[in-house]
Amino acid sequence: MIFPIGDDNIEGGFKPYVSYALIGINVAIFLFQLTLGSEGINLFLNTYGTIPDEIAGGTDLFSLITSMFLHGGWMHIIGNMLFLWIFADNIEAIIGSMAFLMFYIVGGLFASGAHILTDPNSLIPTVGASGAISAVMGTYLVMFPKSKIKVIFIIFFTIFYLPAYAFLGLWFVQQLFSGVGSIAPQAAEESGGVAWWAHIGGFVYGVILGFIFKKFFGHRYNLENKSRSV
Asked: Is the pTM here over 0.85, yes or no?
């Protein structure tokens, strides 16, 4: 198994304050969850997580937002924040902080919608930032396809580089196969609780927005070497 640990960054000193703030908020809420105890955490996640059956019935719509900032465990929060830290800053550098925040939130909503459409009767709360982060990854693929992603091969602790199109392309294919496989009822029960279609929906949204951003904001930067235009 391989994990990303870094990438090429936009040159020019831009500070992605919204990306940092999102990471900080997610971590702070997760640490708060840990103070609640096991029963309190379950109640908290059921209250503020997105439950498809409730959303389909028009109730607890606020959870579409709050669920983006909740996580179910250490590996969940660490994995999501690592991906956000790696892929978000370059996009924020190009489109600006406020536009990035709107893009991120809408990406999370789009991802939740995709999950709800594929399993509208589910009573299981969905939590996590991965849908919004998938949107970030989709946009990154379009805007920085040749960026070098630094990855580590966990088994052998080997570090090497992959072009973004290879890493993100393989990641999306994995999500797509898992998502299709989870459609069958029994397979859905054995999917490990992963909302694959939220990942897929968020990524597709990100790809579409990536082409739009590249058209309207690409002139601000040289997207091939990721440096500021002067």
From this structure: yes
